[in-house]
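Exercise 7.
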Amino acid sequence: QVQVVESGGGLVQAGGSLRLSCEASKSTFSINDMRWYRQAPGNQRELVARITSAGSTNYADSVKGRFTISRDNAKNTVYLQMNSLKSEDTAVYYCNADMVDRTYYPPRRISPWGQGTQVTVSS
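Solution. The predicted structure, written as tokens, is:
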């Protein structure tokens, strides 16, 4: 079964740090872009950070300079290092990955989501 699974959330004080992990089980798929989103109560889900298979990154303005996305392609895992956390970072964080299976013609493309991991920052 192809899926992505997040871990690493929790409760932290403002100014603290957390590292989220997301591991993809991919079968015959290759993984392209991997992304972290978050959704706070009453808000829409927003893109936090993105990393391509080559390692290029993009960040939401609200997290630039505080969050770092990285990936370990050998482990099919993407990380989100979150430093200088603020109360407004409190949300459920979701991992999303673009995958393609080129054993099919045309290639089969999927974009699975994880179940989410709660991050709570206390002020």
